[in-house]
Design a protein that fits this description.
Blueprint: H1 7-23, H2 26-35, H3 40-48, H4 66-80, H5 82-92, H6 96-101, H7 104-115, E1 121-124, E2 140-144, E3 147-158, E4 165-172, E5 175-182, H8 183-189, E6 194-198, E7 210-221, E8 225-226, H9 232-268, E9 270-271, E10 274-275, H10 280-308, H11 314-340, H12 351-358, H13 368-379
Parallel strand pairs: 1-4
Antiparallel strand pairs: 2-3, 3-7, 4-5, 5-8, 6-7, 9-10
Helix pairs in contact: 1-4, 4-5, 4-9, 4-10, 5-9, 9-10, 9-11, 9-12, 10-11, 11-12, 11-13
Amino acid sequence: MDLNIGNNLREIQEAVREFCEQEFDQESLQRYDDEHNYPRELYRKIGERGFIGVGFSEDIGGSGHGALGHVVTVTEMCSSLPGMGMALSLGYLPGFVVDISGTREQREQYIRPVIEGRYIASFSVTEPDSGSNIGSLITKIEDKNDYYVVNGSKMFTTNAGYADFYTLLGRDENALTVVLFDKKVIDENGARRFEIKDLGRKMGINTITSGKLVFSDFHIPKEYAIGQRGEGKKIALAAFELGRIVIAAQAFGGMLYGYQRAVCYAQKRSQFGRPIIKFQSIEHDLVDMYVEIEKCRNLLYKAAWLYDKKDPEANKYISMAKLTIPESAIDVLNRSIDIFGGYGYMRDQGLEGALRDIRVTSIYEGTGRIQKNTIAKILY
């Protein structure tokens, strides 16, 4: 395994870095955050420049670089400004379920516009009483001749309210099924059958909504089903595999952001007549961060590499990355704030916001404890 990315991806990495330097800024992020407003114009721009499509296959308009391509672009965006990079990548990450398990027609209709930055995706799984255990989902998908009828509610749905299409995991008799619905289907059902409730402000990533979806005899035509009936769990887990790699990349970008900011500050900040980077305690903190970053880089790249090779070991390494990297990112950001001292606690420095934003990477798409369960089942 070669842990060095190739020239093509290196050029893409540089292009993403240049774009972020020009387009990302802390003041804009705070404004989007305060207004609880998604940066749709920036999302459109990263689509037009091909950054969304780096990891998607060429047959649907992507560049074909696979999971490692997603890792490179998302890491670069999040290392520039974690909250902005997370928001933008969360615009297309929920589309993985359609890209992996949808038909050619479904991928053309929904994923190509995602890659172009025209569509934002949403995948609704969690329910008020069902989180990590998707086997306990109770939202019903009933077969009614030429359509399905959905009843129930979903919680913490990312991009609720402004997504261009949603995918939904629900109970179809004794198994789980995934169905898709878009704005056309929502309009045909009307407000009586479908309601979105914004859950309000969160600890972080307030540039995106997390909503509650309520279905009351909501009709979905059968051609909107994703994959085969009863295979919803398999379909969802396949999407989670790739999603967890991208989320680990979000956290890894956050680590780089904190470390880079801490090094720069320690070089400029002087106390007792010399830069604080010359104090052994600060040097040791920075060295600890650097070592942790390199460990996480190797784990993340190996997980992506194994996934792209369809290696049976991939799932284990993906869970290891999803478990380890968010925890390490939180630690690195906390240490970075300590190096900044009181300044690190101030909002305009960006570090406290980055810590709040990155915190969720240890929760969504499978908590750390779920990753430990997965690893234990493989090992023992």
